[in-house]
Amino acid sequence: MTATTSAPTxxxxxxxxxxxxxxxxxxxxxxxxxxxxxxxxxxEVVVFGLFQPIMFVVLFSYxxxxxxxxxGAGLDPGLYREFLMAGIFAQTVTFATAGAGAGIxxxxxxxxxxxxxxxxxxxxxxxxxxxxxxxxxTGLTLIVLALVAMLVGWRTHENGLKVLAGFxxxxxxxYAFTWIGALIxxxxxxxEAATSGxxxxxxxxxxxxxxxxxxxxxxxxxxHIAEWNPFSATVQACRELFGNxxxxxxxxxxxxxxxxxWASLIWSVLIIAFFRxxxxxxxxxxxx
Amino acid sequence: xPGAIYAEGLVKTFGAVKALDGVDLDVPEGTVLGLLGPNxxxxxxxxxxxxxxxxxxxxxxxxxxxxVLKQPHDVRRSIGLSGQFAAIDEYLTGRxxxxxxxxxxxxxxxxxxxxxxxxxxxxxxxxxxDRTAKTYSGGMRRRLDLAAALVVRPPVMFMDEPTTGLDxxxxxxxxxxIEDLVAGGTTLLLTTQYLEEADRLAHDIAVVDHGKVIARGxxxxxxxxxxxERIEVVVHDREEIPTAEALLGKHSLQGTAQSGVTVExxxxxxxxxxxxxxxxxxxxxxxLDSRGIEIDDIGLRRPTLDxxxxxLTGHAAEDEEKRTGTVPDEEAATDGKKQKRRSKNQKKxxxx
Lengths: 288, 352
Description:
With 288 residues, chain A is mostly helical.
């Protein structure tokens, strides 16, 4: 089995110079660029992605807001509005799951994944590139949403660094969830299925949490689920970092609620590690 | 020494379906192998195994001197793949698509840009280079897809049904591109359902059905295997048929099931299996002429790859329905019947 070919191969690709990691980063950036160009050319997706969170801001602030009893604040709609925003931010970032899943399913469907897999590129780069592009989109969505939130009266009451840390946790959570989306996209194979498969479970996950109502008011089983929900940890952490909790708000005793920053960080890192491993493994044998 | 593409005993099962059932292939460097077979024969699976996309259940393969199972990453650097669908990003321009692929082949951004411009020129896409691929016609998409497979001038190329779904003009253009490529020394494995395509592009043909290679050889060898050539004569006058029949009968190939002259009264057509080629044809023309028989048409007919396929598999390469739907006239219809009759005879022979 000696080398047999001496065919004309002028621009033969060089061996990956800086080893696997460097190639991995370079390829991921090429793929991220591709997905960002796509997003710019289909701005409808980004625009429609904003509709739902904005609608939720309005609905929950004005329709439900006056009827939700917030421990330590009573029925004050102004305090509820501040309490609410972290929940809507967090729900919005997790919706990127569907976008990532649909994008990857579409690439499968159109035979692009076959092409990428036949190229001498880093194995995880197609998925990493997609999730990075989604991260950029999530960031833009958050900026717009924060501005809308300020219009309806949302304010932060902590220093800038803490506020930035809060948004950092939100972005990390969103990034983690796009890896779940990537796995769904590789599994279901059609963009339509990936969209619904990426959203259906998000509703119970985001509603059985502290995002829209305080967990203290739930029946005990649901309350435990809500307090250990990875999603709740990020929401709670953001409320603390933004200074959006009512002054006398009784923090639940569950560990993630007592240490929400750490809990959010740990959950997100675990989700990335777990779902990235599964998704990349799935990618290695994925064919249209 | 194995060829540029070499496979031995490839087996791949999907559930209950044996997509590959012991496929051996050997493609010498710089040649074209046509993998010919109907839908579901296992052609695409074979390409996917050889391009590292799926792992076979058993067997092994070497591409460009590299073991497909042990060195998949190195294999990917030496191959280009153009799949069944044009695998391009519709929201990217032609140029962006090619630059992306170039960079993923690990070219520098600058080299990828230069190469993209070169390929766009060569594939007649320069005018559309900065439009999104969404606006491209089917033929343009195919050309862009092929260009993407050629970014690094890989020594070994795989094309899975490159012209499926293209109109004749675009198909013809793509054939020219492929011929150019092969003239440059690239080894190519091409799958196709179109016999004409294999006939035109491939040096060697492997006929695949139900995951097995059921015949291989050059186009001429396969045709010869199917029963050789025949002379067809259309006489001007119906009264001349008996004389012509007697004359042609003397030249009939003996000892096969098809011996003897077939006569179609209404078309005044006589057909006889022969083995003498063009020399014999000239002789027959002289003899007919010397007897004063006026002829409207005469020719040496070789079996087409269609005949080959029917003989080998018992069914046509394309769907039966499609075939009967597209038979244009009576002549073709009788042709079809003749083929079927012949294929039955052939099978009898094979049993012997």
